[in-house]
Every structure is written in structure tokens, then in C-alpha cells.
Amino acid sequence: MAEHFVTLHCEPCASCQDESWQRVVDGRLRWEWQHYCPVAGTQACDGGWGPAPDLIREEIIAREGTERLGVGGPDGVPLKTAREVMGLTLAQLSQARSHGFEATPVEAELLRGSALRAAGEDRGRF
Quick count: other Cβ atoms within 10 Å of Cβ 4? Predict the structure, then answer.
């Protein structure tokens, strides 16, 4: 469920400040966005669980870059994990399987951790 807080709207100016970030909370991906304009005295924020909306994810990628992760196969993130954590469609999952997945650093950390936990659970079954 996304959370929203908005006070007023303003026209973007040089004083406007936008911040966006991702983090892992209780093993889940969380994104946040904040906007503040000291000139207009406006502020807004948004946040939610799961993959960030495209515009916010693009801001994070522009600032922090990406890491290409293999998906599927013996050394890649399990297909089920990639699909569940990142909400990939079957077409996106197929693309990631063929070419890798461009993850933000936080997404990569979560996907790697989920893959390690899944591998440990599989080993525990035998």
C-alpha cells in the first residue's frame, strides 16, 4: 500500500528540492520520494513497498547507477525471486533471463540476499 502526503502545488523552480531513495525494510523493498520548495513553502512526499515507480527509479539510477544481475541458471537470481521481488511480467522476466537485470544497488542487495536465502532453504530440504 502506498502512502501519500501532499500540501500544495508549485511550479518547479531552482529552489525546488527532490529526494528519492530505496531501502530494504524487514526483507522487503521500500521506496520514498520527497519534494520541498522553500520559495513556495510547499512540500510533498510519497512512498510504497515494492519496486519504485519508473520516474523515481530513473532518478535513483541517474544518481547511483545499476548493477547487472544474471537471472536464472546456476549463478543467477532465481526466476521466482526476480519475479516476486521486482514484480516483473513474464516478458520482462524473459528479457532479464536473456540479458540480465539492471538493478539499483539496493535492489541488487535484496535480490542477492533473497537468492542466498532461497539456496539455503533448498539445501536444507535434502
Answer: 9
Q: How confident is the model at residue 49 (pLDDT cuts 50, 70, 90)?
A: very high
Neighbours of 101 (CB within 10 A): 23
pLDDT, tens digit, 9 for 90 and up, residues 13-30: 888 888 899 999 999 999
Answer whether 77's CB lies under 8 Å from 115's CB. Answer: yes
- Rounded to whole angstroms, the Cα distance separating 124 from 126 reads 6
Tell me the C-alpha distance between 54 and 34, whole Å. 15
**Rg of the chain in Å (alpha carbons):** 17
pLDDT at 96 > cutoff 80: yes
First to last CA, the chain: 37
Residue 88's beta-bridge partner residues?
none
Q: Which residues contact 74 (CB under 8 A, 6 or more apart)?
A: none
Is residue 17 within 8 Å of residue 36, measured between CB atoms?
yes
SS3 (DSSP) at 93: helix
